[in-house]
Write a structure and sequence with these properties.
8-stranded mixed beta sheet; 13 strands; 16% strand; 5-stranded parallel beta sheet; alpha/beta; 41% helix; single chain
Length: 429
């Protein structure tokens, strides 16, 4: 039976019981030594097999636990086997310098005595995602017509989902022009990423040649460390906002025979799919920005996507970009019949829909394209949505984005929050 392993000190049985009851209330089966070890069995015979079989491990950290040799051994085992883990620390606990910290999928929740309602909700959501094998939706932001404000809107919508709706978001820049990266990273951070090859190429190259049947999440975790850039300082109890920076170097995959790198059994292809599958267990949303064209990277993104988000501006060419996208889905390899397509109006009149927008909405809602829906939300034209690169020296690289506000920004903030709320409802987060 599937279970979640609870690691704790025997002196903290009440803390362990609190966690176990929370898990059971969410339909999750806890496993801990008192109920899992029969009389006469040794800890060695039962603990490590139970750890290996667990969906994830919850470490109940107290002053007693950090001194426990057994807890440390369990942490080392989890670390070696790439098992997702959560730390829950009680009281004003400071971890010793020699205490292991880097564990696959680690999240740490600091609890004073009992969980707050928000801590409980976030904790159970995180554990449920792993236990019930829920996968984060993958949203490709694309329109085969350029000039629709795709990249700027993507940064603002998914940033808004993180800041206001507390969703962990991973942004991936697959556009060879890497406009999303240039928008979100300051020049110093971009230079650092260039010098250290911290970009999407690490995602494709993987952690070296491995046997696909034996690959562990710890292999992919090393790749994540190589290519992910935090956009905001991380802290306890807070969702994540990360970027995999783009690079012009992906043009390498456009040259020569594409199937050399992206046939279905190619190492590059398998590395990418493993990376996405790993991140689907550790984030609430994955958003991929691609260039406005029927390119290889567009196909690569669509192959792992659950949803498409297509911004359109109200002009007579807007529908044509979506028609071309539908033609692309019919031509490329794979079954895209279940792919949900969301259309959002961008750069519209603040006063209300004009005749062009009304006609476009009517045309796009005629159900000629399967699984396509026009969102209710609309993003009015705003000078604040003009792309501005992050200012150097800031720890929060999102501060130049429109949803952060400032004088006269209330209207665009309202638009973005409403659109982000509708978006996460549509993608089922």
């Amino acid at each position: 039976m599937a279970h979640v392993f609870i690691s704790y000190s025997q002196k903290d049985a009440k803390r362990r019981q609190q966690i176990a009851e929370m898990l059971e209330s969410a339909g999750i089966t806890p496993w801990f030594d008192e109920q899992g070890i029969a009389l006469g069995e040794s800890l060695e015979e039962r603990i490590f097999p139970a750890l290996r079989a667990s969906k994830c491990v919850i470490f109940v950290l107290t002053k007693n636990a950090v001194r426990s040799e057994w807890v440390r051994r369990e942490i080392q085992f989890v670390q070696a086997n790439g098992i997702p883990a959560h730390f829950i620390s009680f009281g004003n606990l400071e971890l010793p310098e020699d205490f292991p910290k880097k564990i696959s999928g680690i999240k740490r929740v600091a609890v004073r005595s009992r969980f707050t309602a928000k801590q409980r909700e976030d904790f159970l959501n995180d554990v449920s995602r792993v236990y019930f094998e829920k996968r984060a939706p993958v949203v490709t932001v694309v329109n085969l017509k350029g000039g629709v404000g795709k990249t700027t809107l993507a940064a603002n919508l998914f940033g808004c989902a993180h800041d206001y709706l507390r969703k962990s978001v991973l942004l991936i820049d697959l556009d060879p022009q890497h406009n999303l990266t240039q928008l979100l990273l300051d020049k110093e951070k971009m230079s650092e990423c260039y010098a250290t090859s911290r970009n999407v190429m690490a995602m494709f190259r993987g952690a070296g040649v491995v046997d696909p049947e034996k690959v562990m999440s710890s292999n992919v975790e090393r790749v994540v460390e190589r290519c992910v850039v935090p956009l905001k300082p991380s802290s306890e109890n807070e969702p994540l906002l990360h970027l995999v920076p783009g690079t012009f170097e992906v043009i390498t995959y456009f040259l020569g025979e594409r199937h050399q790198h992206f046939r279905r059994d190619a190492q590059t292809w398998m590395n990418f799919k493993r990376f996405i599958a790993y991140c689907q267990r550790h984030y609430d949303i994955i958003a991929i920005d691609v260039n406005p064209g029927a390119t290889l990277m567009t196909e690569v993104a669509l192959s792992v996507s659950t949803h498409i988000l297509s911004p359109v501006r109200p002009d007579r060419f807007a529908k044509y970009g979506l028609t071309l996208l539908e033609s692309l889905l019919e031509k490329i390899e794979g079954d895209y019949s279940a792919l949900t397509k969301l259309v959002i109006m961008n750069g519209v009149e603040r006063a209300g829909p004009d005749q062009i927008e009304l006609e476009l909405r009517s045309e796009l809602a005629d159900h000629s394209i399967p699984n396509q829906k026009v969102m209710r939300a609309r993003i009015a034209h705003s000078a604040r949505l003009v792309a501005k690169q992050a200012k150097p020296g800031r720890k929060d690289l999102t501060l130049e984005l429109a949803y952060h506000g400032g004088f006269g920004a209330h209207a665009i903030q309202t638009d973005l929050r409403a659109a982000a709320q509708e978006l996460i409802e549509e993608i089922g987060v």
